[in-house]
Design goal:
The complex is a heterodimer of chains A (558) and B (337). Chain A starts with 7 loop residues before the first strand and ends with a strand. In chain A, 64% of the residues lie in helices and 2% in strands. Chain A has one domain: Cytochrome C Oxidase, Chain A (Up-down Bundle), CATH 1.20.210.10. Chain B contains 7 helices and 12 strands. In chain B, strands 3-4-10-9-6-7 form a 6-stranded mixed sheet. In chain B, strands 2-1-5-8 form a 4-stranded mixed sheet, with no helix packed on it. In chain B, β1 and β2 form a beta hairpin. In chain B, α2 packs antiparallel against α3 and α5 packs across α7. The chains are: A mainly alpha (558), B alpha+beta (337). At the A-B interface, α3, α10, α11, α12 and α13 of A face α2, α3, β7 and β9 of B.
Chain lengths: 558, 337
C-alpha cells in the first residue's frame, strides 16, 4: 500500500475509517459545543445554514415582488410596501447572502482541509466573524420590523437622508457596518492562512484554484469593505448630525455618496463572483477528470480581476453628471475587466476537451454556470459602452444583467459547490437523479424569469417601478411564471439535500475522484482533519485515480 | 451600416422606434454588440454541448489527462476579444461625446424635477400643460421636430432621472446643481418620458409625455403654454418677472437701484410726484402707473428713460395680481445698499 492510499486514522480512537463513525459532527455534543466551537468545519456549517436561510428570506421577497408585478397597476401591494420589499430583497441578498455565502460557508470548511492543515490561522476570529454576521442579521431583521426602509439597497442620498423612515435607515446601515467587519475578518483570516499554512510542497502554483480564488476575494474583502463601513457611517452622521457632506441643502454633494458607495460595491461584486469561479474550476476539473486548462492564466486572472475591479466603480454612475473625461476613463477600464473573465470561460471549456465528462448534479450546475455567466458577462458589454448605457442604465436590462451574473453565476456555482462537497461535509450521498432534476428546473426557470427582462429594459421599462405601462405586462407575466418555476427548482434542491441527511447512503472518502487534499480525509472529516500533514502533489493530477466499485468511490492507485 | 437581422430586431421591437438623431448610432452599436455576443456565445455553447456528449464518461472510453495548454489558442482568444472590446468602447465613447457636447443655437427648456412630477418651462416663460392619461395628469413637454433641444435640469429635492426611451437619452437630475442634456427629435409623435432614479413612494407615477410637433403647431402649443398660477399673489410674483418689471424696478430690500423707483414699503403711503403733488400708493395708482406711466412720474425720475405703457398688453386680472404683489412688499424693511 502506498502512503497516500493509507486510510486516515482517528487520533483519539485509533480507528481506521473511511466513512467513520466518529467525526467532526459528533466529536462533541450539545448546543454550546457548536455555539462556542473553534472548529472551522462547524463554523462553516453554521454559516451554511445561516446564508441559506437568508437566501430563502430574500427569495421570498423576490416572489412577493414578482407576484405583485403580475398586474401593471392596481395590484395587491401599495407603492410604499413594494418599495420596502424591493429594498429588503436587495439588502438581504447582497449583504446577508451573496457576499458571505461562498467564502464563509464553503471557504471556511474547505480552506484548512485543502491545505492539509487543522484549522484556519485565527480560529477565534473566525467564530467572531460568525457572530458579527449574526448580529448584522438581527439588525437587518430589526430594520425589517421597524416599518419603513425603502431607500433601495443602495441608500442613495438625498432620499436616504430625508426619508422619514429614519429608524429603519439607521438600523440597516448599522447592520451593514457590522456585517462589513464579519467580511473583513474572514478575509484577513484567509489571507494569513493561505500565506502561512500551506503544507510543504504546496507552492503558490500547486494550490487548488479554489484557494487562488479565495485569496483574491480576501484581498478585496480587506481593502474594500472598510470603505463601505465609512460610507454608511457618514450617511448616519449626515442623518443624525447634519455634517453636510451629501445633503445639498447643506452644500453637500449627493453624487459623492455614489462614489463612496460604489467604490466598495463594485469590488463587492467581485467578492461575489471570484469564489464562484473558484468553485467552477474545481468542479470542471474533477468532473472532467482532467487538469484545468490554462491553470496559470486562471490564477493570474483571479488576481487581475480583483485589482482591476477597484478601478471601475464609476460605471454605475454614467448618467449622474460626472465630467466627460471621468466617464470615458471609467468605460475604458470597465472593458479591461471583461477580458480575464472571458479567458476563464474559455479555459473551462478547454478543460472539457478530451476529458472524461461525468454528468452528475455538481457538473450540471457547473455547466449551467458557464451558460448563464457567459450571458451575464456578455450583457455587460452594452452597459459598459457609454452610448448604449445612456439607454439601458436604471432599466430592467441592468436588473437582468446582474441577476445573470449574481444568481446565474454565484448562486448556481454555490449550489454546485454545496452538492459537490456535500458528501464530504455531511458524510451522506444525495439522490443524484433528483439533484440533476433540480439543476434542470433551476436552469429553465432562471432563463424564463430573466430573459424577458432584457427585452423589458430595451423597451424602456425602468427599475424599481411598482406600477408600469400596460404594454409591458406580457413580458412581466412571463418573468413571474419563470420565477415560480425557479423557486420550485430551488425547493427541490433543498429537499434533495435534506433528504440525504436522513436517507442518503454513506459517502466514501472520494465520491467524485478529486485529487485535492480534501478528498484524502474521511467523509465527514475527523475533528482535526489530518493526523499528520499530508504530502502534496499536483492538485489536478488525475492519472492515478480510479473508481472502486466496492467502495462506491474513487481511490488513488500508486 | 445595416446588419442582417437589424430590421428583424426592430420589427420584433426590442427597442422602441428611434425618434432622435442619436438613435441610429445607439441602435447600430447595440446591434453590433449583439452580433458579437451571438458569434461568441453560440459556438461556445455548441462546443460545451458537443463536449458533454463526445467526451461523456462511458465504459471503454478513457479521456486524456493532458491537453492542458495551447499557447497559440490562448493568445488568440485573448487578443481578439481585447480588440473587439477596444472597438466597442471606442464607438461607445464617440457616441457619448456626441451626446455630451451641446451645440449652439438650441431650443432651451428648463426641467424641474420634484417628488413626483416633472415641470417644464419654455423659453417664453410658459409652463407645461397636462394631459389626462387614464386617471393621471401627465405633464406634457412640447418640442419642435428637427431642432436641437437643450434641457437644463435641476431637482428640488432628491435624485431623479430624465429618460425618453425613444430618443435613447437619459440624464440624472441632481439637487444642488444643474445637469444638461441635448438631443434632436427627428420624428413627430408622442413619446414616453420616465423618471428612472428611484425617488420614493410614487417614483413609478412620475411619468410624462413628450410631444414632438412640426414648427407651426409647436409655436401654437408654446403660446398656449403661457400659463399663470391661480393664486393672485403668486401670479403677481410671476408676472412681475415675466412681464419684465423686474428689469427696471426692484422689489427687494436693497432699496432703489434701477432706472425706476422701487416699490418696497410703498403700499398705502404717500409718494411724491414730479409735479410736486402727492399721491397715495394704492390700487388706482398702480393701475395708472402700468397703463399710463408718464401721467404720474415719481419725483426724481423725470429724466429717467420713459416706461412704456402696458395698455393692450396686460389684462385686468393681471393688474389685480400685481397689486397683490405690491401689497405683499409693504412690510419689508429696506437694507443698506
Amino acid at each position: 500500500m502506498s502512503v497516500v492510499d493509507r486510510p486516515i486514522v482517528a487520533p483519539s480512537t485509533g480507528e481506521v475509517q473511511d466513512s467513520p463513525e466518529h467525526h467532526f459532527l459528533n466529536h462533541t455534543h450539545g448546543f454550546l459545543s457548536w455555539a462556542l466551537t473553534l472548529d472551522h468545519k462547524r463554523i462553516g456549517l453554521m454559516y451554511l445554514v445561516g446564508v441559506m436561510s437568508s437566501f430563502a428570506l430574500g427569495g421570498f421577497f423576490a416572489l412577493v415582488l414578482r407576484l405583485h408585478l403580475w398586474n401593471f397597476k392596481d395590484s395587491w401591494l401599495t407603492n410604499q410596501t413594494y418599495n420596502q420589499v424591493f429594498t429588503l430583497h436587495g439588502a438581504i441578498m447582497v449583504f446577508l447572502f451573496i457576499i458571505p455565502s461562498i467564502p464563509a460557508a464553503l471557504g471556511n470548511f474547505l480552506l484548512p482541509v485543502m491545505l492539509g492543515t487543522k484549522d484556519v490561522a485565527f480560529p477565534r476570529l473566525n467564530l467572531g466573524s460568525f457572530y458579527l454576521w449574526l448580529t448584522g442579521l438581527v439588525l437587518f431583521l430589526t430594520a425589517l420590523s421597524i416599518t419603513g426602509l425603502d431607500t433601495g439597497w443602495t441608500f442613495y442620498t438625498p432620499y436616504s437622508i430625508e426619508t422619514q423612515k429614519g429608524g429603519a435607515v439607521l438600523a440597516a446601515t448599522f447592520g451593514v457596518f457590522v456585517l462589513g467587519f464579519s467580511s473583513i475578518f474572514t478575509g484577513l483570516n484567509f489571507i494569513v492562512t493561505i500565506n502561512t499554512m500551506r503544507p510543504p510542497g504546496m507552492t503558490w502554483f500547486r494550490m487548488p484554484l479554489f484557494l487562488w480564488a479565495t485569496y483574491a476575494t480576501s484581498i478585496i474583502q480587506v481593502l474594500a469593505t472598510p470603505v463601505l463601513g465609512i460610507t454608511v457611517l457618514l450617511l448616519a452622521a449626515e442623518r443624525m448630525l447634519g455634517i453636510g457632506i451629501f445633503d445639498p441643502k447643506l452644500n453637500g454633494d449627493p453624487v459623492t455618496f455614489q462614489h463612496f458607495f460604489w467604490f466598495y460595491s463594485h469590488p463587492a461584486v467581485y467578492i461575489m463572483i471570484l469564489p464562484a469561479m473558484g468553485i467552477i474550476s474545481e468542479l470542471m476539473s474533477v468532473h472532467c477528470h482532467k487538469g484545468i486548462f490554462g491553470y496559470r492564466m486562471i490564477a493570474y486572472s483571479s488576481i487581475a480581476i480583483a485589482l482591476f475591479g477597484f478601478l471601475v466603480w464609476g460605471h454605475h454612475m454614467f448618467t449622474s453628471g460626472m465630467a466627460d473625461v471621468t466617464t470615458i476613463v471609467f468605460s475604458a477600464l470597465t472593458f479591461t475587466v471583461s477580458i480575464p473573465s472571458a479567458i476563464k470561460v474559455f479555459n473551462w471549456l478547454g478543460t472539457m476537451y478530451q476529458g472524461t465528462v461525468s454528468l452528475n448534479t455538481p457538473m450540471l450546475y457547473a455547466l449551467a454556470f458557464i451558460f448563464l455567466f457567459t450571458i451575464g458577462g456578455l450583457t455587460g458589454l452594452p452597459l459598459g459602452a457609454l452610448a448604449t448605457d445612456m439607454h439601458f442604465h436604471d432599466t430592467y436590462f441592468v436588473v437582468a444583467h446582474f441577476h445573470y451574473v449574481m444568481m446565474g453565476g454565484t448562486l448556481v456555482a454555490f449550489l454546485g459547490g454545496v452538492f459537490h462537497w456535500w458528501p464530504k461535509m455531511t458524510g451522506k450521498m444525495f439522490n443524484d437523479t433528483w439533484g440533476m432534476v433540480s439543476a434542470a428546473i433551476v436552469f429553465v426557470g432562471f432563463n424564463l424569469t430573466f430573459l424577458p427582462q432584457f427585452v423589458l429594459g430595451s423597451r424602456g421599462m425602468p427599475r424599481r417601478y411598482a406600477t408600469y405601462l400596460e404594454e409591458f405586462q406580457d413580458l412581466h407575466r412571463l418573468s413571474t411564471i419563470g420565477s415560480l418555476l425557479l423557486g420550485s427548482g430551488l425547493v427541490i434542491a433543498l429537499i434533495v439535500l435534506m433528504h440525504s441527511l436522513f436517507y442518503g447512503r454513506k459517502a466514501p472518502r472520494n465520491p467524485w475522484g478529486g485529487a485535492t487534499l480534501e478528498w484524502e480525509c474521511s467523509s465527514p472529516p475527523p475533528h482535526d482533519n489530518f493526523s499528520s500533514a499530508p504530502t502534496v502533489g499536483d492538485p489536478y493530477d488525475f492519472s492515478g485515480i480510479e473508481y472502486d466499485a466496492k467502495q462506491g468511490g474513487y481511490v488513488k492507485k500508486a | 451600416m445595416q446588419f442582417p437581422l437589424a430590421d428583424k430586431v426592430q420589427a420584433f421591437a426590442w427597442f422602441p422606434d428611434g425618434a432622435s438623431s442619436f438613435a441610429p448610432q445607439v441602435d447600430w452599436l447595440f446591434t453590433f454588440i449583439l452580433w458579437v455576443c451571438i458569434l461568441f456565445f453560440v459556438p461556445m455553447m455548441a462546443a460545451m454541448v458537443y463536449f458533454m456528449w463526445v467526451y461523456r464518461e462511458r465504459p471503454g472510453y478513457r479521456g486524456s489527462t493532458e491537453a492542458l495548454h495551447n499557447t497559440p489558442l490562448e493568445i488568440t482568444w485573448t487578443v481578439i476579444p481585447t480588440a473587439i472590446a477596444v472597438y466597442i468602447f471606442w464607438e461607445g465613447a464617440i457616441g457619448y461625446l456626441d451626446m455630451a457636447r451641446i451645440p449652439k443655437g438650441t431650443v432651451d427648456v428648463n426641467v424641474t424635477a420634484k417628488k413626483w412630477v416633472w415641470a417644464f418651462k419654455y423659453e417664453n416663460g410658459g409652463e407645461n400643460s397636462f394631459e389626462k392619461v387614464g386617471n393621471a395628469d401627465m405633464p406634457v413637454l412640447v418640442l419642435p421636430v428637427n431642432r436641437d433641444i437643450k434641457l437644463i435640469m435641476r431637482s428640488e429635492d432628491v435624485l431623479h432621472s430624465f429618460y425618453i426611451p425613444s430618443f435613447r437619452v437619459k440624464r440624472d437630475v441632481v439637487p444642488g446643481r444643474y445637469n444638461y442634456m441635448w438631443f434632436r427629435p427627428t420624428k413627430t409623435g408622442t413619446f414616453d418620458l420616465f423618471c428612472t432614479e428611484y425617488c420614493g413612494d410614487n417614483h413609478s407615477n412620475m411619468l410624462g409625455k413628450v410631444q414632438v410637433l412640426e414648427e407651426e403647431e409647436y409655436k401654437l402649443a408654446l403660446e398656449k403654454a403661457v400659463q399663470e398660477p391661480e393664486d393672485p399673489l403668486e401670479r403677481g410674483k410671476l408676472l412681475y418677472k415675466r412681464l419684465g418689471c423686474s428689469t427696471c424696478h426692484n422689489a427687494g430690500s436693497e432699496g432703489a437701484s434701477g432706472p425706476g423707483p422701487s416699490y418696497n414699503g410703498s403700499w398705502g403711503k404717500e409718494v411724491p410726484l414730479e409735479t410736486g403733488a402727492k399721491e397715495i400708493f394704492d390700487e388706482n395708482y398702480v393701475r395708472n402707473s402700468i397703463l399710463n406711466p408718464q401721467s404720474q412720474a415719481r419725483k426724481g425720475y423725470g429724466a429717467a428713460s420713459p416706461m412704456n405703457s402696458y395698455a393692450g398688453r396686460i389684462k385686468d386680472v393681471q393688474i389685480d395680481a400685481l397689486i397683490e404683489f405690491m401689497k405683499s412688499l409693504q412690510n419689508e424693511a429696506p437694507r443698506a445698499k
